[in-house]
Structure formats: structure tokens, C-alpha cells
Amino acid sequence: MNKPILELKNVQTLVNKGTANQTKILKGINLQINAGDFITIVGTNGAGKSTLFNVIGGNLRADGGQILHNGQDITRTSEEDRTAFLARVFQDPKLGTAPRMTVAENMLLATKRGEHRHLIFRQLKQNMARFTKLAATMNNGLENRMTTATGALSGGQRQALSFLMATLKRPDILLLDEHTAALDPHTSLNLLHATNERITTGHLTALMITHHLEDALTYGNRLIVLKDGQIKADFKGEAKQVLTVDKLYQYFED
Ligand SMILES: Nc1ncnc2c1ncn2[C@@H]1O[C@H](COP(=O)(O)OP(=O)(O)OP(=O)(O)O)[C@@H](O)[C@H]1O
């Protein structure tokens, strides 16, 4: 059998280390993520979902356990070095794009994720048709704003651009941290559809945090419930298909 694309072995994190307030946030996470997995993650506020993404992304170091990428230990690899194989989209549309650069320039930058980036503007012209076609797949008019500064886009267009940028250079792992939560219901649904399309047709490996149980059930092949820093359930394949909102809701009680 192939190695998991990402594996977490007994991963633990602490906050307020060495003080009287020292607290364990992740309490021994064991998780094997296989190539092509699209995992939705749900859990109460404070369950540790963002902390899990921080520790996978490398902006928080694990205080115990191991993280392996294709079998290689990356537990101590920096956040910057992990961008060579990992991309993340945040809830805040402002976080994923450079506001003064145009849509096309941002996209060009994204083709160089994980490399020393300097823009060669002649490459803009060469890539414009491809970028415009890609922007059109987001179904929100982004393709008509290729030379607009990103700061002037609507929140929905900016977040769609962040998502596109995260996937332009194929990441081994894509982390979606409530990436539609700041959008209105219609815009959010549109981006979710585009997200699902790009992940499934591109066979990307993705983890998506959401507070919408319906969305967690609708999308992906796997669903994880995080509670109090631990994985309480991991539904795969058919077990996920027969899962209902009512059953899932039980994990949020008490
Ligand atoms: N730097 C920190 N210092 C102290 N406590 C922290 C720190 N970072 C996270 N925590 C605590 O760790 C717990 C988990 O936080 P985390 O943000 O991972 O939860 P979450 O599941 O993403 O929550 P939400 O759904 O509200 O976004 C929370 O109790 C939070 O207060």
C-alpha cells in the first residue's frame, strides 16, 4: 500500500508553556491522510481545529509526536519550507492576496509558491489567457477583473482568487480554514461548488474546516469530528454517506 501523503502520530501542542496556565490543546492526534482524501472537519469552538491546521502548516510547532509528509519527518520543518507542498486558505479574504497587485499578478505569484519569488512581468502576457480561463471557472466575474488591483475586488471575488492561488501550483495538501465563512450565503455556496469541482476533478488532497454540518456531510469522502483536542470520530466512505445532521449533532451536545 502507498504511504499516506500526510501522517500525524500522537501530535500534541501546549500553550502558555512553562507557566501556571500551561494547557494542552491537541491531545494526541493520530491521523493518516491518503492522496485524494477530501476531509471535512467539524467541532465545537475551541476544539482545536485551527490549531490542527497551524501544526500541519508549520506556523505552530508540535510539542510532542511526529508529522510525516510522504513518509518524511517534517515535524521541525519551517512554515516557509512547507509551502513547497502545502497551501492554505483562511477565513479572511484579505489574508490570501497582495492588495496592490492585480488579479493576474497575484496568480503569477501563486505559480511560484514555495520558490524564491520574483515576478517576471513578461510571463504575465504569456499566462494571461490561461489565468483568465481559470478565473472564469469561479463563476463570479473574476475573469473580467484580471488587471484590477486585488484590494478593489468584492470579498467573494477576493476569496475565490485566494482559493485559485492556493491551487494554481498543485499542492500536496490543501488546507481550507472556514474559507467561505465570511461570505454571504449565495457567494459562499458558489465558492463551495467551485472548490468541490476543483478538488474532485483535480484529485487534490484537502482538509476543510466548516461549522456547517450540511456542508461537512455534502462534500468530501471523509468527515472528522474534533472535540477537546482529540479526534472523536472519523467517518469514511459509506459510513460518511449514511451519516445525518442529527447523528453528527450529537457530538456537539454536552
Ligand atoms: N496562543 C494561544 N494561547 C492560549 N490559548 C490558545 C492559543 N491558541 C489557541 N488557544 C486555545 O486553544 C483552544 C483551541 O483553539 P482553536 O482556535 O484551535 O479552536 P477551533 O476549534 O479552531 O475554534 P473555532 O471554531 O472557534 O475557530 C481554544 O481554547 C483556544 O482558546
UniProtKB/TrEMBL annotation:
One Pfam family of this chain: ABC_tran
Source domain of life: Bacteria
Chief location: membrane
Residue span, ABC transporter domain: 6-253
Signal peptide: none
Localization per record: Cell membrane
Protein name: ATP-binding cassette domain-containing protein
